[in-house]
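Class, study these two lines:
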Amino acid sequence: MIKIYKNFGPVIALDDVSLKVKVGSIHGLIGQNGAGKSTLMKILSGIYASGTFEGQINVAGESVKMSSPLDAQVRGISIVPQEITVADTLTVAENILLSELAMNRKGFYSKKNGLQKIRKFLEDNEIPLTADQLVSELSLHKKQILMIASALYKNPKVLVLDEPTSSLTSDEIANLFSIVRNLKKRGFTTVFITHKLPEILELCDAVSILRDGKTVRTSERSEFDANQLVSDMIGRKLGDLYPEKNVLSKDAKAIFSARNLVVENPRKPGEIMVSEFSFDLHAGEILGLGGLVGSGRTEILRALYGDNRVLAGKLELQGSEITSKDIPSAIQSGIGYVTEDRKLEGLFFNLEIKSNSTASILDKFKKMGLLNKQKEKEVAAEITESLAVKPQDIYEMIRNLSGGNQQKVLIGKGLLAKPIVFMLDEPTKGVDIASKAEIYRIISDLAKQGVGIILVSSEFPELLALSHRILVFSGGAMRGEMTGDINKEQELMMMAIGQS
């Protein structure tokens, strides 16, 4: 792709962008949300037809013009989107053959011939799928592999994978990487789009970075490291990613305390998830909860928020004992919470920013049973402005926002109740590096304003850099406490696996 220029009215989406990918390589494409990755791929895939943009596309040395996605496929370009799009009621073989069904001489689909073709195809390409298995029986990871297999069946010259690891576990990611490396050995050319720097460092032979619709850099693997990638993506040095921690007063009193708390396993009523533990949280302090998946961190936050049962112990907020028996009482007491799953629990994706922002405090806008819509609009606008939500239009649908901006709306929703204690569970999950930096700033600013923060994050550098102190949990028990220091990642890991 050479000197691509694309505008939408007065807005320039791509400005002189070039992307050169070597045959048989794995080429990474990264950039924050809004950098232009999606627009560039829509041009490559034929969604934006030739004539709607300036520049040139060459495939295997030949200049091509594409008027539709089908035209792009004919030219040898296959794109696997981030969203899972498969036919659950069909078999693996039938899904792969949808665009080119195996037909017998009478013009009808031959299931036997189709199975034979796909079995051989899967075996030849070492793809771990069973041809006659129903797709409805596949895991999310296997469905993603099926989408890759369907793209490969067209024998593309260029295979584009758009955020393929966004919903996968670490083991599934390792399996996917194995498949991609095997494709490279077989001569396939892959463009790998992601916002996860470790994936670029581990998998890619080269990388191109986009920022604000322009190509910042294209480098071979030997020419870049994590610091350089972050700097190129966000336009500033890695050291600026994490804000400075506010200094806590030595004689600061605790605003929130837990004593001998025992938390129930929500999946097994009556069973203990986390045994007795205690803590104090001070005004302006960021208290991290560290541990591995399944250590009980999320269950602790939900218990403090009244969404999970406390079997024993007591809680005090500003010196008075409280009972977070349910979510409304926790909110009324001054405890706020941001869930780790904005899609299932945090936001209404069929509603706009305004309705999402104010959903939990609508009663505050009512007088004599009538909703003050003007006041609701003003408060929603204040949230979008103060948290730099893009776009600033409070009537924009949540589903149209980037992951980072969705997360900022979710945080703003929790802040409208003006909490004394604000708890965040994986607040940067599924957002790009630039959005992470903005969320870090929001958390830091809240602490500087005196809000007590309890933070859960599976990204240890993030947890260490933001937290003043960290309580580490493993095997249903608190294993110890440590100061937040980005240089102590090994110590945190050892405690998290119960080896300290």
